[in-house]
Amino acid sequence: MRYLRERRPDPTKLIEEKMAVAEELFNLWGESLLRDPELPELLKAYRQAVEKSNQAMEAAGTFRECYLCSVEEGLGCCKIGLENECTVLILLLNRLLGVEFPKDREVPGRCFFVGPLGCKIFARPMLCRDYFCRRLHKKVPEQEMIHITQILNDELTLLYRITSLMRSRLEFWTGDFMQELDLTGYI
Fold this sequence. Notes:
mainly alpha, 2% strand
């Protein structure tokens, strides 16, 4: 198994290494994780929670505002390096959900996972989901923000439960040495 060795690698190299570790774990342990007595139901609930969050965000117009800010105005939160908020466990979760990783950064200067139409992964770190900036605070009524935050809570709680369960299973199967599964960071 590969280890994350460099202290300050460029963001693309770091996320590529994390994706390689997640892919290796998926190839070695993916079937076992998917046969786990608890995980399949959690995955189903997580998928539904993300879809519910997405519907609430779409209805509030947050996706449209983020698109305008990021794509049309060239600003936005999804800057290069943000991809490294994804842990190996979140990347592994994406693989368990059937997500294929992009091969290259599609939008220069932006997060590795941003494509022309938005994020290309399904399971995302908390920072990528609970992201209300000043622009959104000005555009989205407070009650709607509260509603979205409450819905996101279910999604993010499930994300935590799933990644904790995966960590526990992997540590049991491979030994208690997999500390870099939760590595995040900006460059």
